[in-house]
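Format notes (please read before filing issues)

Several people have asked whether sequences and structure tokens are stored in separate files. They are not. Every record keeps both together, in the order shown below: the sequence lines, then the token lines. Line labels are part of the format and must not be stripped during preprocessing.
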Amino acid sequence: MNVLRKIIGALVLLFVGIPILFGIIWGVGVAKGALSSHFYRELPQIISSEIPNIVDELIEEVRENPTSSDMDEQSKRWLEAIYKTGVPFKVVMKESGLTSWFEEDFSDSMYLLGKVISGKADYKPVYLSLEKLKKAISSDYLADYLSTVVKNLPPCSQTEEKFWALEVSKKDFIDNFPDCNPQKIDKKSLKEFFKSSLQMKVKEIPEKVDLLSDYSMGVGVDSKGRDFFSWKYRDNERRINFIRAFNTYSYLLFIIPFSFIFLGAIIADSTLPGFLLWSGGATTTGGVLSLLLHSLVSGVVKAVGILPSSSFSIYYNSNLSSVEAIVNKRVMEIFNQILSGLFSKVSHISFTIILLGIALIAFSFLVKNERGK
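Then the structure lines:
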């Protein structure tokens, strides 16, 4: 009879209690990671740090493989002109104010967004100020930098020179700049042109946006035939409140697996030391399996996305152009960092569960020794 009870109890633990515990650890862990305010704060910083890397690697590709690179000639000329400025793109972002906007305004707003979504702050609109971004785009530094880049391009043909002269005189934004240096236009005039055209362009950007609303961007044409953007949004309070409630009470989901673990344990052994031993063993097993999968997934993601020796990476990147391969590499780097943030809570919860299981096992021996005295 005791053997049969142990078999039934073991089956309940093995096929019900432990799998459900494993699933809840991952479900709650990923949800907690995705709703962490610190995770939200780090996203803009991750993005801003990778943008200069993309530009620098594209320039390096052109410099090292000027003839073999499959990049189009127009892109090569622009990247060569950027290289000739002697200013790393990281410095351009910092001096123009773009880095400051990413790491301060954007990052702080995302942090507050995470707190609201996770239920750590009252529900209220979370506004992302775009004022500093607009100033950065239309800054004197960026206008001067763009004029320097243009002056590093090869000389224009007569037709291209006329095109530049016409556009500069209109002071309107050019969607596709000719990849040449208009020698009849001095750098000061180019800077004024970029300054005025960028100022005109940023007027289409709103002063702020509510991050808790759904935004859709529409494109229209004004009276002068130029494109303009319109914004529509929908409030998400009901959906946000559901997420907040789930995040607040998600740990209660552990009642489900532990109910089955305790049931299986009491079937296997109804004595207190035996019940604690079986419960602790099952709990520890669930935590260890979860932690092992976390390590495995983290390793696989890094191998596939980063290592050039990865067979998948070689196969995938061989079908991409040099530009696409560089961008893909950096996007995967961002993706890896995002996944690390998502999975971090899984490892934390797994460790907690393992410690709980070990404590139950230790307590079972303590109770057994006390009863033996």
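For reference, the curators noted about this record: The chain has one domain: 2-130+206-367. The longest strand covers residues 213-221.
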